[in-house]
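Could you please consider the sequence and fold appended to this message?
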Amino acid sequence: MPEKLFSRRAFSRTALQSFAAAFALPRLRSQENFRHNLPSGDGYIRISFNENNYGPSPKATQALDACGPIANRYPFVSEMGMTQALADYHGVKPENVILGCGSTEILRVADEAYLAPDKNLVVAEPTFEAVLEYAGIEHADSVKIPLTADHRHNLSRMADACTSKTGLIYICNPNNPTATIVTRDAMAEFIDRVPRTTLILVDEAYFDFVDDPRYASVLPLIPSHPNLVMARTFSKIFGMAGMRLGYAVGAPETLAPMRKLLVQDSANAAVLNAGLASLQDRDYIAECRGKFIATRKWLAAELAKDGRNFTESQANFVMIDVGTDVTPVIKQFMDRKILIGRRFPSMSDWIRVSIGKQAEMETFVTALREIVPAKGSRAA
């Protein structure tokens, strides 16, 4: 085997295993035990972490293979290239974009910049826990507003909860773990109600999976709302969860305190090159999106056929009511080599299931019918 080819392949193989550990951020306590108890090795259907089971674009893996010759260089040039590419993609200027080691770093620096012991965080309950746990590190109080009866953000109550002490309000749209959306009109009305002194952080990690025409990104609202920041990630539709790349778009003056808190050089050249290749491969992303939506519709039809209660998903996962605490149910799926999502305390009778490949979801449905036989409840 030629030495040059071996080096390229070895580099790209090692990249996927080590890049995420190279720039460690505070760990999420809510996921720590769950992660430690997950089995390793092959042979499992992994529908637990809302990943893209189709993997990254082939052009992204090719970009990784080509990164050996630049492994000894700092990623300044690649950072500028990716920042410019994202600015062009969203129709903004480079100063409107910051990069992070996954969107979790964006959430971390937002909390660190805008929260303090005398500032609180307003969030839905349940939602993605990272922003809550980073708030705890800042010794900031968190005001949790329960979701509505149909598992959506209670925007009216969230806006009412904002005071002069509210440093940040977080909206995950679509929401994790419920996969439900805030509509375009509801979001615009909500943003207008939030005080300009409060940072509004809208996490659009699952933006690409939405097919509801009532939904829209908050991106067009940023120019008229300097306290608004949009977070995105390459971990979901782009299939790069193991490579850790996220970003935020906002007003330069709003991003400035966050930019100062980013881990220096946290985005590395190999990941940035892979991300750039993914961003440019629109056909592959459209293909993945089509597969996810088709399988999601099939799954919803099967769940409805069983008379099950489940959330109206607009993401690459869904929550299903199993009528009992999910802990033993998760274990029974694991015994069948199917890994599903963790337990969410405020929805302890609901399992979160990521949308995998069609064959994987058919296996899941068969196992679900064996583990939790349908009882004739109705779809939410």
